Amino acid sequence: MEQKKYWKGLEELNDTKGHQEIVKNEFQEDLPFAEGESLLNATTPRRDFLKYLGFTTAAATIAASCEIPVKKAIPYVNKPEEITPGVPNYYASTYAIDGEYVPVVVKTREGRPIKIEGNTLSSVTGGSTTARVQGAVLSLYDTARLRYPTINGTETTWAELDKQVSAALNGLGGRPVVVLSSTILSPSTKKLIGEFLSKYPGSRHVTYDAVSYSGMLLANEAAYGKRALPSYHFENAKVVVSLAADFLGTWLSPAEFSKQYGATRKINAEKPEMSKHFHFESMMSLTGANADERYTHKPSETGAVALALYNALSGGTVSGIADKRLAEGIQKAAKALQANQGKALVVAGSNDVNVQLIVNAINNLVGANGTTIDWATTSNYRQGIDSDMAQLVNDLNAGSIGALLINGVNPVYDYFDGKKFVDGLKKAALTITFNDRKDETSELCKYAAPDHHFLESWNDAEGKTGYYSFTQPTIAPLFKTRAFQDSLLVWGGNSTSNWVDYLKGEWMTRLGGQEAWDKALQDGVIEPATAPALAGAAFAGDVAAATAKISSAKKGGKHELVLYEKVAIGNGKMANNPWLQEMPDPITRATWDNYACVSNKLAQQYGMELGDDYEINAGKKVLKIKANGKEIALPLLIVPGMHPDVIAIAVGYGRNKNAGKAAGEVGKNAYPLVSYNGQTFDYFAPDVTVEATGEKYDIGMTQTHNSYEGRPIIKETTLEEFIRHPKAVNEDREELAKYGKDFRADATLYPDYPYPGIKWGMSIDLNTCFGCGACTIACQAENNVSVVGKEEVIKAHEMHWIRIDRYFSGDVDNPEVVFQPMLCQHCDNAPCENVCPVAATMHSSEGINQMAYNRCIGTRYCANNCPYKVRRFNWRDWNGADSFENNLYDVSDMNDNLTRMVLNPDVVVRSRGVMEKCSFCVQRLQDAKLAAKKEGRPVKDGEAKTACQQACAADAIVFGNVNDKESRIARIRNEEQKERLYYVLEEIHTLPSVNYLAKIRNKDAAPKAAAGHHEEAHHG
Amino acid sequence: MTGPALKGVQERWPSGELLHQWIRNSAAVLATGNEYATNLYNEYNKQAMPAFPSFTDEDIDNILAYIAQESTKEQGGAQAGTGAAAGGAAQDSGDNSLLFGIITLVLAIVALILMQINSNLNKLAADKEGVATPEPVPFYRNKAYIALGIVVLFIVGGYFTINGAIGLGRQKGYMPEQPIHYSHKVHVGMNQINCLYCHAGAEKSKHAMIPSENICMNCHKAISEYTGPDLFTAEGKKINGTAEIQKLYDYVGWDPQQQQYTKPGRPIEWTRIHTLPDHVYFNHSQHVVAGKQQCQTCHGPIQDMDEVHQFAELSMGWCINCHRTTKVQFAENKYYSIFEKFHQEVKDGKIDSVTVEMVGGTECQKCHY
User: Fold this and answer.
1) Strand ranges in A759-881 using DSSP code E only, listed in sequence order
2) Which residue of A has its CA nearest to B201?
3) Which of B369, B368, B364, B361 is nearest to A918 (CA)?
4) Does the residue A1010 lie in any domain?
5) How many domains does chain B have?
6) CB-based contact B364 A933, cutoff 8 Å
7) Mean per-residue pLDDT, A891-895
8) What distance in Å separates the CA atoms of residue B144 and residue B150, rounded to the nearest whole number?
9) Are residues A590 and A577 part of one domain?
10) Which residue ranges does the record assign to the 4Fe-4S ferredoxin-type domain (chain A) (predicted)?
11) Contacts of residue A848 in chain B, CB cutoff 8 Å?
């Protein structure tokens, strides 16, 4: 099969001069000498040089030869029975922030949580996680957390706070109390809030979601009479049509959906079946990038697209769509849906009630209710109704609200009219915040009664009806904080009870005893013994009315704006998390900023010439964008696959300076561009004006940092082709035969090493890697990978051990995307090992390419010789591991004594001047081996898991002992996936230990490259 | 010494039957007033040998046969050693090197004098022939000598610098003063408390764990005074054992009169003796459970230490040497069943055992990650 041309960015596609230069250079920066000055005519005379030499030698001697410090060994006075120093404990808990429901297991060492994994006992998520869940453990040690209760910003005691708050509550004079929170999944907490509010007549609990799903809730109410969200079952869908719902990245419950959707994308030659995924959107989302067929439209046309799809399904013709390709796409999607009645699912990301109503109607037509959409078990993931919030803000401004209790939301920052909210807030008699960290809203509240972090808390969560998950403390509260629920109990006059007893009491009654409660905490989840049967609901929506409203909607202007959440940062609540800030966005590969994503065409209109200085240089031209009467100036970033007239901006950035060192003043706040249509929030603007400013702004993009220089590293084919010729995708591997019968042994002069015991190996399925980045953060948490900050990312100094390369192919305006996780390939014939002058990197008898940091002298030959470009050099002292204190380079408080508690004590931190890279999580492998040795048995398959493998929601990564013929990895390589299996750059005989499985697209068209090839042949 | 060497034990004892009785229960033999036994007992500080009533005659015969066999083997080895000339030379190489050193020095001085004479004679010869020669420079300004001196200085200095640098951070023999004079000799040697009773982590964790104070109090609630032999510090200062137990009570807040805890406990800040650098991963349970090593292998005769000192060097070379020579439980531990190649080789008689090194125990990432 012809090799398609893959490109990471436009520079590479056009092979500009700047790109060629960057490919040639090992490191993407000039050496730190001033321009035009060479070493020969440098002004430093010989004597000075000798002085420096003498000084540094003396300084190094002094630093190194200080007396050996006297260390203390301090045992417990009374050792807790369950703690053995050096042995981790695991506690089941729940990540339930802003309605996201992910049951987790928390690993603690000597009483401090250091890693979060998914809870495999949960049938909802099946143990999958997201980047944010993985990163949540760092938020526990956030230096910006509130450490004590405050009154008007000054520290106070809980007793004093309680006294004043109780007095203030009593003095409200009948004005209502409002609890304002994000979606709360905890039934006990909700009950408690209800009890608290019942004492204050007219009081209410307002749920406000920063990124709202109230359009769906209201549409479901209109269509099915239930103001709820159903359970989605992507695993039952043969055809998925997504109308801009980023369900693999940010939409509702990505951990759950990735698992379900991933199950339908697993494929082998024996059973060559997979789901087909159509995606219609305005920007380039993670989910869109994974779709089989992707079409773009303007955000103002969302309703029209939904309507056209509905009409195509009911009447048979697509109408009202001007764009020919889009119309064809809708027709095709409709056909596929029709052909798969009862095995189809349509989801939409729009927050417009009418659009969602049409989507409900479509799902009703294609038989999704009861098959891929379950109304028997509804989900509670989002509960906020936008009009409730708008009403509250009006009431506040009218001065009719007595007390406002804010828990877990930050409307000053993320409400579209933040100023109005601030004005209202000032008019409330009593304002209390329970937020656990400094944010824009808590700064303006009179009383701050900080809540615990969820890892310090007791709680329960009901993600779906009947599906519960519990939260238990994994560490004693670090600060003088108190559970939100405890505060309510105290202020409600219920001083006899505390929250733990309250919660336990609730569950003891339901479960019927201590034993059942203990088991619930141990398992973390309680689920129905047998999953309730899927059920549909009778559709009773008024399609005609919705159609009329959509048709009369305002038409879009020349340029349109769409707001989106980034996979890592989300709605901005966890913005002060350096891991998440530095995680490259799956699509743009940019870190630490938000920006205006535009198409190539739009960029050229506003003066961004695609030339040598575009992707090579960090500086991007700044655009001034006006929408809904607001203005925002952001650098533009060309994203292939954007609709030509659309600008996309991520929310969640632009937090104020006090939000923390990592989040403070990074990017711009895009929430003010949201508008309220009287019913729901619109996360788009149909008419924006754009203006070039001539200024430039640096963006830290990892996009072009590691180039493969056009070498073939991705393999893909279409489903059709795969069914016809399963082996065709690996045709080129047959050429290896010319080196001898056994490529491994015959193509080299070196003797083949037999690997007598274990031989570790990894398999990565390109079909189920969606690029979400959970593995990157999991690896960072597990292996103490450093955060370097934006300035250093610009210099290509990022440290991630596993990166997810994103390649485009095909049409520049509507490209196909493929994600390839790239980590150390642990080559059995490793190019890096041969060139190390001090043997700091060498091979183990288990096939691991080992890196001995303390032996490394930093020549960087290995990185230069690595064809996979996975080695990372510590250009600076990120961790304070140097002897010299002032060498530390820390832009995000990662070296605060508090933050350092997140470090994994089984893995060292690396000092300046040494190379590092993926170790296959050797500490976990050693641990699994030791457990087996102690029990006197071989290591079982699946016992040793790498962090990336465990974090992956779609199980794209399989790891194990290749020598064990019964292991998953051996079966994948030798039986199940022989046709798709390939090694990257296999022909250079590096013998990687990581294999990939070729990507298969479920599209009808013949491969583009092959088509082009034929055309050429005709011309020739 | 707790007793005589076992070699030739059968020849020494008056009768084989008596020896059997002695091994099975030495106290019973002493009670009969046997002369040889009583002398032996008195000679070795009246240290009683534990009784093994479960031993059958056959067991004891096996033990004695083993002793006899090992004794002859050792002799054979020694004979072979003395037979080889190289072995002999190697044995007293210490004396020879001193001799060689002196000879080298004498020869160097002779060579120097001869060189001086040679140059003087050359000068005289040249003077005689009327050839002008430069004035001789004194040896301390002679460039050749200075260069030579610098090279020698560099080599000697370098040797000591590098040795010193290697020794940085190593503290073999380190014996700091501890907040409580806790004697392992009293607890382990005399009272036979198992190491794992206090250092329970050695079987479970990477840390052996310094016992928490509640472990101490398990016994010391009842034992409040010290009645054993006198204790001395390394400097010879006498220690009052009972006062040391009082210190423990003070730390944990125990009132021995009232027999209850009266104060909140404070942790004891022991001074850490055995420390590995941060970049080394060491796991006690690996060595104790999987490797079946005795504590004494690394910690030395801890049962005889009043004050603990660091017995081993704990350097990488020391670790590696042990990994090279120590055999794994290859046949016993089924973990190693996957090493089919080695099993085959053992079966074929190519190798007789498998060392830690052979299963990857000297690779970098076994300890450094």
Assistant:
1) 760-765, 803-809, 816-822, 841-843, 849-851, 872-873
2) A84
3) B369
4) no
5) 3
6) no
7) 85
8) 10
9) yes
10) 760-790, 815-846, 847-876
11) 365
**Average confidence score pLDDT of chain A:** 87
Residues A253 and A166 both lie in one domain: no
Flag whether pLDDT at B18 surpasses 70: yes
Measure the CA–CA gap between B279 and A296, rounded to whole angstroms.
Answer: 53
Q: What is the pLDDT of residues B110-130, one digit of tens each?
A: 998 998 888 888 888 888 887
Confidence (pLDDT) at A265: 92
The nearest CA of chain B is from the CA of A850 a distance in Å of 6
Residues of chain A neighbouring B200 (CB-CB closer than 8 A): 84
Residue A191 has pLDDT above 50, yes or no: yes
B265 near B253, Cβ under 8 Å?
Answer: yes
Token readout for A905 is: 């004590």
A626's CB contacts (< 8 A; 6+ apart) are A688, A689, A690, A691
Which domain covers residue A464, as residue numbers? 150-212+384-523
Q: Average model confidence (pLDDT) for chain B?
A: 84
Please check the confidence at residue A261 and state whether its pLDDT lies above 70: yes
CA angle A261, A264, A268 (to 5 degrees): 140
**Where residue A821 sits, what CATH number does that domain have?**
3.30.70.20
pLDDT of residue A759: 93
Mean pLDDT value across residues A232-257: 92
What is the distance of C-alpha B313 from the center of its chain? 8
Judging contacts by C-beta atoms under 8 Å, the chain B residues touching residue A850 are 363-365
pLDDT digits (tens, 9 = 90+) for A898-919: 999 999 999 999 988 899 999 9
* Mean pLDDT (whole number) for A420-426: 90
Neighbours of A59 (CB within 10 A): 12
Q: Please report whether residue B38 resides in a domain.
A: yes
Output the pLDDT for position A548. Answer: 86
Decide if pLDDT at B94 tops 80.
Answer: no
Hey, is the C-beta of B166 within 8 angstroms of any chain A C-beta?
no
The answer, yes or no, to whether ipTM is higher than 0.85 is: no
Q: How far apart are CA A214 and CA A935, in angstroms?
A: 54
In the predicted structure, residue A967 carries a pLDDT above the cut 70: yes
Instruction: Give the integer Cα–Cα distance in Å for A737 and A758.
Output: 27
What is the arithmetic mean of pLDDT over B194-199?
A: 92
**Residue B225 in tokens:** 């005074």
Query: Hunting for tokens 């990477």 — which residue is that?
Result: B206
Nearest residue to A979 (alpha-carbon basis) of A271, A275, A292, A5: A271
CB contact under 8 A, A79 and B281: no
Amino acid at A520: A
Q: Of A70, A77, A845, which has the smallest distance from its Cβ to B363's Cβ?
A: A845
d(CA A267, CA A262): 10
d(CA A75, CA A85): 10
Q: What is the rounded distance in angstroms from the CA atom of residue B39 to the CA atom of residue B37?
A: 5
- What SS3 class is residue A135? helix
DSSP state string for A24-52: H-SSSS--SS-TT--STT-S--HHHHHHH
Give the gap in angstroms from C-alpha B139 to the nearest C-alpha of chain A: 30
Q: What is the mean pLDDT of residues A231-250?
A: 92
Take residue A803 and report the two structure tokens written for it: 């990166």
The H or E element containing residue A308 is: helix A302-314
Confidence (pLDDT) at A31: 56
Q: pLDDT at position A32, please?
A: 55
Q: Which residues of A touch B217 (CB under 8 A)?
A: none
Q: What is the CATH number of the domain that holds A476?
A: 3.40.50.740
B161 and B218 co-located in one domain: no
Q: Residue A147, class by beta-carbon neighbours within 10 Å (0-12 exposed, 13-18 middle, 19+ buried)?
A: middle
Report the percentage of chain A scoring pLDDT > 70.
Answer: 93
Q: Are residues A451 and A578 in the same domain?
A: no
Q: Does residue A767 surpass a pLDDT of 50?
A: yes
Name the residue with tokens 């299963």: B359
Residues A441 and A509 in one domain: yes
Nearest CA among A326, A289, A323 for reference residue A815:
A289
pLDDT exceeds 70 at position B79: no
